Amino acid sequence: MGVKDFCSKYYVDRMGTASLKWDALDLRFGDPDLISMWVADMEFKVPEAVVEALHNRVDHGIFGYSFVPDSYYEAVIDWEYSHHGYKLEKEWMRISPGVVAALYWAVNMYTKEDDSVIILTPVYYPFHNCVKESHRNLVTCDLNYDKGIYTIDFEAFERKIVENQVKMYIMCSPHNPAGRVWTEEELEKMLEICARHKVLVVSDEIHQDLVFGEKKHIPAATIANGKYADNMITAFAASKTFNLATCLTSTIVIKNEELRKTWDEFTRVFNNVEVNIFGITAVEAALRGGNEWYQSLKKVIYHNYQMVVEEMKEFPEVYIAPLEGTYLLFMDLRNYVDIEQIKEFTQNQCRLAVDYGEWFGENWKGFIRLNLGTTPDIVMSAIDSIKTNLRKVNG
């Protein structure tokens, strides 16, 4: 399905539906009348297979206690193998009510108070929060940056691990907000450093399916024929791929038996996990019946990215990260807008709700993150506003 047909068929105006993205603008930004380009969900209805499966479940009329059926695990296993070449086993898999919840749990399960946890910045702000709010020592390592291009500073990464006696590395793969899809060489180098220094890796791979062009998502646990899989916990979900965030169902993969035992003891004693049957139903239906929808969605996202790049050529020193993965575009406005005026420019002049660079790391003020998981018309409205106001600022 083409971009225009997909948007015509699946776009929904979400105003007035208790949408965090659209109906909580006043709470988050103090202004209800902004074009919402922030939080990472989409304006597109889920695949028909998901709607049908949920209708069938509701029509059954009973919502008592449930468990995770084998069919769910089989759907996840089939998807991971067919799309990523990742051969999972059911016994490695656990369920959590979201990847962010799993990050908080992992920090509290596998580290102690005041232990050090490292992240590569700029990175999704719950990575920061789950460490600091768990009373651990947050160690940040900035990515190398050059005019929209992000690479890993391996020397600094290893040095900070050693200097701070780091116990855990929370990895974002693909990387939000930089849009990087780590190469096999980059992944192996990070994992080798962590293994050598006994640093447990928690790999957030929630954007695994949203990879573009010739780039390929490589599950971290498969690197070097699974050499590092026993030193790793992987978290992913269908929520980004199929717009299912509120279904609160994520898959956690733990190959190492001792790490699994710790996970099971923690969730049993401190946060006994109940199954969200609607989430299980929705995810299974999406993985089994949503592939055509998913392939069309990717066309929309990449079309939006290419449109933004073309439109912003008028301002050659606005640097845009190449979109290798995710549906989130990170834009560097520092050559045109004073970093202390970025909110004034973006919110009050452009009338946009965005994620600000400093949310992802203290050294990234002057950057903004834009959500491309919407229609080209909405994206174009945002970009037109940015261009109009850049002309005024730099008249």
Short summary:
This is cysteine-S-conjugate beta-lyase. With 395 residues, the chain is of the alpha/beta class.
What is the topology?
Elements lengths: L2 H8 L9 H4 L1 H5 L5 E2 L11 H13 L9 H15 L8 E4 L2 H12 L5 E6 L3 H8 L4 E6 L1 E3 L2 E3 L2 H10 L2 E7 L11 H13 L3 E5 L27 E6 L1 H4 L7 E4 L3 H13 L7 H13 L1 H21 L7 E2 L7 E5 L9 H8 L2 E2 L1 E2 L10 E5 L4 H18 L2
Parallel strand pairs: 1-13, 3-4, 3-7, 7-8, 8-9
Antiparallel strand pairs: 2-10, 5-6, 9-10, 11-12, 12-15, 14-15
Helix pairs in contact: 1-13, 4-12, 5-12, 6-7, 6-11, 8-9, 13-15
Question: What descriptive keywords fit this protein?
Answer:
4-stranded antiparallel β-sheet; Aspartate Aminotransferase, domain 1; 395 residues; alpha/beta; 2 domains; pyridoxal phosphate binding; 7-stranded mixed β-sheet; 15 helices; Class-II_PLP-Dep_Aminotrans; PyrdxlP-dep_Trfase_small
Q: Your description of this structure?
A:
With 395 residues, the chain is of the alpha/beta class. It has two domains: 3-46 and 291-394, Aspartate Aminotransferase, domain 1 (Alpha-Beta Complex), CATH 3.90.1150.10; 51-288, Aspartate Aminotransferase, domain 2. 42% of the residues lie in helices and 16% in strands. It contains 15 helices and 15 strands. Strands 2-10-9-8-7-3-4 form a seven-stranded mixed β-sheet, with helices on both faces. Strand 3 (116-121), helix 7 (125-132) and strand 4 (137-142) form a beta-alpha-beta unit. Helix 4 (48-60) runs antiparallel to helix 12 (277-289), helix 5 packs parallel to helix 12 (277-289) and helix 8 runs parallel beside helix 9 (184-196). The termini are far apart. The mean pLDDT is 96. Its cofactor is pyridoxal 5'-phosphate. GO terms for molecular function: cysteine-S-conjugate beta-lyase activity; pyridoxal phosphate binding; transaminase activity.
